[in-house]
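User: Can you write out an input/output pair for a complex, sequences first and structure second?

Assistant: Here is one pair. Inputs:
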Amino acid sequence: GAVVSQHPSWVICKSGTSVKIECRSLDFQATTMFWYRQFPKQSLMLMATSNEGSKATYEQGVEKDKFLINHASLTLSTLTVTSAHPEDSSFYICSAVRTDSNQPQHFGDGTRLSIL
Amino acid sequence: AQTVTQSQPEMSVQEAETVTLSCTYDTSESNYYLFWYKQPPSRQMILVIRQEAYKQQNATENRFSVNFQKAAKSFSLKISDSQLGDTAMYFCAFGGSNYKLTFGKGTLLTVNP
């Protein structure tokens, strides 16, 4: 089946630093990638939609300057949490889909981000 | 905007028995997909089953089946012969024409030995 790799799986960093999370589709070309955030014991909340070669579309309430998304190729999207603070600590999950296929989104394994 | 409602925050079932998880949704779209995802403690999102709205036949995947009632906007998941490995958080999700997924709040299912 299709595989989406997300890296790193867990990162701990100091407040004020920036953290980059990568999402790669390993065996298919992902025209669209999505970034979700999940707080403990809560559901997944869509943060943004990323289309290859164009600017990401952010959901209401998500700060685009805080969460920078780049989708430079059909196999890679990155989420950079800039000037991270403890309230940014969360579980971040990406998913990828090829919109001209009949396949569902394929999810990465997620990244646990802890800001000290 | 779409909404997905899972009214059962937690459920439990004995091993080998059957359990049904409820989900209702609201949308004005005519073409869409509905999904059930399983999220075990590892937090991996695992697709359990998918239903296309234009198909009247209920989807089945081995021990998992759905009861899709389009007019009632209901999409329940039945798990037969429950196994300990079925213990997880289950999310119902709506997928529209823009491929975005809207998730319900989830149901924590515990399978007891």
